[in-house]
Write a structure and sequence with these properties.
- This protein has 289 residues and is mainly alpha-helical.
- It has one domain.
- Helix 4 crosses helix 5 and helix 11 crosses helix 12.
Length: 289
């Protein structure tokens, strides 16, 4: 598949002009940041194509391609679902759909964060040789993980079909949550991509945090199983709020208003950090490669 590169992307990203940009005032940095985002958004087809090509190259020569991930996820849901439902003494009809949905959504969230750390470093060759808005690389990372999520959705469909359950009209309420995930995914890629380009020891730290968050977030256990004295694990856990605004509608219920408020507040804080962090680092990223 051939990709037409616009003329404005031809000059090298690591041009001498970036040295001058690094010393700009905050107002000028804001203007350049807005320009980067707007130009990158206009090139969304390029980001979509690059993300699609990443998946094709990752599974080149594979018989089932990304569906190997679907099979492994399905096998894990079947094995661990029966095991944990027995340990928690929960009805499998109730627990396994919850666990399957939670696992698929968590894999997407964690992958967006972890691959956001390498959003720019993995594109080092492109950043050094082509003048391209950095926002395109954020789109590329998000698209790559969204395609994997689309393959893993098959696990949820099979589980729902097997237990003959359907969320009904509540499923439409997951769309605003997915829209918020999209914004957060782009913000995470811009923030962590810039920070990890400068400090290469940050990704292992982020991976450790994600592992801890997996166990303290209701993915393998249900929120109703938590003792009231430990409710702070939910109240102060942004992963729970972001997970619940999509998971609850797909389980046939609705997320509470307090969950939505917390998720929006977290997203606003994340976008503000990405705005400040990426804005200050944007002109230096090419030199950190």
């Amino acid at each position: 598949m051939s990709i037409a590169v616009p003329d404005r992307l031809r000059p090298s990203q690591a041009s001498p002009r970036l040295v001058f940009e690094a010393g700009h005032t905050s107002a000028v940095r804001t203007r350049l940041l807005l320009q980067d985002i707007i130009e990158g958004a206009r090139l969304w087809r390029l980001g979509l194509t690059l993300g699609w090509l990443d998946i094709k190259l990752r599974y080149r020569g594979s018989l089932l391609g990304p569906f190997w991930l679907t099979l492994s996820t399905g096998a894990m849901v079947a094995a661990l679902g029966v095991l944990y439902s027995t340990l928690f003494k929960t009805n499998t009809t109730e627990y396994i759909p919850f666990f399957a949905l939670s696992q698929v959504l968590w894999v997407f969230l964690s992958s967006v964060i972890l691959e956001g750390c390498t959003c720019f470093t993995l594109s080092e060759g492109v950043i050094r040789s082509v003048r391209m808005p950095f926002f395109v690389h954020s789109i590329r990372s998000l698209v790559r993980n969204a395609l994997v999520l689309a393959h893993n959705v098959l696990v949820i469909v099979v589980v729902y079909a097997y237990y003959r359950i359907w969320p009904g009209w509540h499923a439409a309420l997951a769309l605003p949550g997915l829209a918020l995930w999209t914004i957060d995914g782009l913000a995470v890629a811009m923030l962590l991509g810039a920070v990890c380009a400068r400090f290469r020891d940050i990704p292992p730290i982020i991976a450790s945090i994600i592992m801890i968050a997996f166990f303290v977030t209701p993915v393998i256990w249900q929120p109703k199983q938590l003792d009231k004295s430990l409710n702070w694990l939910l109240v102060g856990n942004p992963f729970f709020d972001l997970l619940e605004i999509v998971r609850a509608p797909l389980l046939g219920t609705t997320a509470g208003s307090h969950v939505w408020i917390a998720a929006i507040m977290f997203s606003v804080a994340l976008c503000a950090l990405a705005w400040v962090g990426f804005g200050r680092a944007r002109a230096r990223i090419a030199f950190w490669m």
